Amino acid sequence: MKKYRMFEVSVSGPAPSVNEAQPDCRAIFQLNGRKTAVRGFWDGHGSYCFRYLPEETGTLTWTLGGCVSGSGSEEVTEAAPAGHGKVTVNGTHFRYEDGTNYYPFGTTIYAMIHQPDERVKQTLQTLASTRFNKVRLCIFPKWYDYNHRDPELYAFRKNSEGRFDPRLPDPDFWDRFDKILDQMEALGIEADLILFHPYDKKEWNFSGMSMEDNMIYLDYCIRRLAARPNIWWSLANEFDLIHQRTDDDWYAFEDFIHENDPFHHLLSAHACMRQYDYTRPHITHVSFQSQDVAKTSQFIAKYKKPVIFDEMCYEGNLPMNWGNISAFEMVHRFWCCVSKGGYGTHGETFLSDDDILWWAAGGVLKGQSAPRIGWLRDIVESLPGPLDSGSGEDSTNIVEQMMNNPDLVDVYLKDQPEETKLFARSLCRMSDRDREDFLMKNNTYESWAGKSAYLRYFGHTCPGITTVNLPAEHTYKIEVLDAWEMTRTTAAEHVNGSVQIRLPGKEGIAVLATADD
Fold first, then answer.
1. pTM
2. Cα 352 vs. chain centroid, distance in angstroms?
């Protein structure tokens, strides 16, 4: 077996008599002295399966217990070239388990796994032609505008009372889901699994299950999926719209996943009207629904965790405002997030006679933002490390620091005229909305990768000239980047200190300075 690839032990046995989701079967895997307890699952085809994620090389041994027994061993060899392990948190950024930096450039396809086979195949082919490396998708089907379809398969079968029962997982659904996740892994795509959502159909009642049923469902998900290297847990899409659940319920789900996932995958929750408590210790990163991309570095400073704007409106032409921003605006918001040390997620919602919209059903992309987002990913991955807003030593932009603490005005502007200080103090008294507008309009989208690379994005403003201030201990190459045209033009080489650069005077322009050594 290969390091960082899911390994499975399968043993024949009789079917569980009542609760097929939680059979009494378990395994102890031991690798290099480290023991990992894993609970198995009934596969519906005559076998109990135990899955393990080897994270080191060496001799792996296992012992089975409960309703089945057995033992064995196998050598774990080095990972395949594309195998980097699961994604983990690295400060306010991400990296793979092998230490390689991971930069999420994702998209949303909520009902991807509930589509016919041909559309799933088409969706995966489309993804293979893009640079998206994360997909947000739901385990339960979705009943919402442009998505009023009953899927062929569901996560559970119905019981004798005619309701979907988590004690009866449907092996055909989960086998098919496994195959889709295998294909996503082969494409280098992380599956951000949405465990609950409010867009339910009365006949389904997945959002109205009892807490007992919810826990059985979560337990089965962990037993079956946790050994996969390319999954994340998202407690919900728009958790606050599932009115049957209290905050304590969500915290109970959070605790259960943390305690029972032996491989500790990333865990977050997505909100609509009010934000989840991202300060909670088991929450690994922030998953926002927000257009406030100008506040990216403020959120990073507040939570001290990675920040992903997983929903910041969709490129499209729907009558709803959340689904009709332009391709340029979609690309612009990605640049805003990235140039302040955060990340974004793409979505697309173009009207279609067949109601097949990418954001729900996948298929093919019709918009113009995806290749430009991929180009930005290529730029970010070419840098020597993750981008952080500010000087490379501070976690927030200087302007934002002064806004949050007026006492810093005299510190940062000590050599400036008094009228400049008065203006800066007026900024400190702004409302959040006015502050956001100021930040959006005043070129504060900038970040550093240590002192080796500097990125400044000008957004909707159109300056014809700018000054770049670079550290004296390095010399730099300065390029002018066009986010829409996807062009890079060298403006200066082997420079440092204060350098004046000509710009094209249009929207979507950035300046990138990279150190020569």
1. 0.91
2. 27
